[in-house]
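#struct-help
A.M.: can someone run this one for me? Single chain, 237 residues.
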Amino acid sequence: MIIILFDIDGTLLHIGGAGKMAMIQAFKDIYGVSYNFDGIVMAGKTDEEILKEAIHKVGFIGKNNQIEMFKKRYFQLLMRNIRRKFPGEKIYPGVKPLLDKLIKYKNVKLGIITGNWKISAFIKLKHFDLDRYFEFGAFADDAVSREDLLPFALKRCNIVKTINVKDVILIGDTPRDVNCAKTHGTISIGVATGSYTTEDLVAKGADLVIRDLNDTSSIISWIFSTLNICSKKSKPK
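D.P.: on it. Structure tokens below:
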């Protein structure tokens, strides 16, 4: 069985700033401080990590109840913002054709591995009608660090037999995605649709680096050949 885990932001889609604006407003509503998250690199981090860094930068002592209040307010604002369809929101090239093809294979399971909290992840996916492709995932609710997320995803993929990490592929747009894969011995595909270049992802050691997900046939052929799986044994459902 092949397990393919996709990052969301910068890999599958871009919501045009709706998420960051929701975070800024939620932070003001809950903590009473205007803070625009400048100086915090968001790409590759979990939402939990970003929020805790922001709390530290403004000098607060984070309390669990405030974090939960922030999340609730953030989800409300994200839902409102995303309905406004911010300029620049999009699904990246090749995403739907690739998912449409992969989901038809009997021996392929698709999952999510994302820095989003689970609720915000599915707000974004549903907005673009992408939620229907994914059976399971790992989210910021599971761990603060992205590198710790992969085991949670594999536990949820509903496979009876033991999973060989060499049959797992992680697709993401940041060095942190690549590092997550390397930490657990899985294969990584770096896609330069986010804020990092192909050179950045090559330097980090991704097993395959591509500009986008547009070349469906080549990507699937690379996956099957890398995992030494004959395409005849990987017929679509």
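A.M.: thanks! The beta strands are 2-6, 13-14, 90-91, 108-113, 136-138, 168-172, 187-191, 208-210.
D.P.: also worth noting: The chain has two domains: 2-14+91-233, 18-83.
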